[in-house]
Amino acid sequence: MTAPKLSATDRARVLTEALPYIQRFQSKTLVIKYGGNAMVDEALKSAFARDVVLMKLVGMNPVVVHGGGPQIGKLLERIGKKSEFVQGMRVTDRETMDVVEMVLGGLVNKEIVNLINQHGGKAVGLSGKDGRFIRARKMLLKKEPQDVKLPPEIIDIGHVGEVESIDPSLVAFLDKGDFIPVIAPIGVGADNATYNINADVVAGKLAITLGAEKLMLLTNTTGVLNRAGELLPKLSAAEVKDLIGDGTIAGGMLPKVNYALDAVASGVKSAHIVDGRVAHAVLLEVFTDEGVGTLIRA
Questions:
Q1: Closest to 39 measured CA to CA, from 258, 259, 199
Q2: Is the Cβ–Cβ distance between 139 and 129 less than 8 Å?
Q3: Contacts of 258 (CB under 8 A, 6+ apart)
Q4: Under DSSP, is residue 295 helix (H, G, I), strand (E, B) or coil?
Q5: In this predicted model, what pLDDT tens digit does every residue of 181-221 receive, in sequence order?
């Protein structure tokens, strides 16, 4: 089914509505975590690339951080290696880390770069190992014992890391040169080991480090919902904490909301949980009054 054609008046109205947002975000940095359906559906992939190019052309500085969990799982399956998870984290031995780096830093990263460039942008693919701009430390998980008198069990899940620090100079240099950075969430440790890091975490920490105007986390959900299943389009940090406290925000949405809270508490003007299943979700969130997700402010 083809979309209805807009009249000249409708087109003018759309552009007029976008104008104040273009003026407001001129020269501002917007960090976008790209993942979920938006990364696998061909029409959504093309729409996302066009959105990012348009943002750059009107004077914004989009920075893309991408995931790639499903793609990693598929390649591991093809080579006969079973994916194993502990507390939602992929157990990453050295062989698995090689696959992660191949998929995130190679296949997925270069596909996104190529798509953006096809639509007229100048994208540059990076991982945190380039210039060692993402420094990581090993993540160790804790498992609480049934006997409260015993200390928690420490679980080593391999080459999975946390962000220790980010050097913003490389990304800032690319922004000034009219390039669009596309970043794979891979870091390097003081021990020179390579670490796989959650893409939401990298996006949040990068937004803080760059002093970004917005952090946008694309998801496969409508946004933050109330108990009746209705979208909550705007929330303050205090309201989010109340919703977490009463159990309204739980499950897979909880970590994303916590990353958003961390960002706005650390100087990012706003964070958005965006429905990446909607075509042009990024543009709708940035350039319109309604948006397509939940906006969180400090």
A1: 199
A2: no
A3: none
A4: strand
A5: 999 999 999 999 999 999 999 999 999 999 999 999 998 88
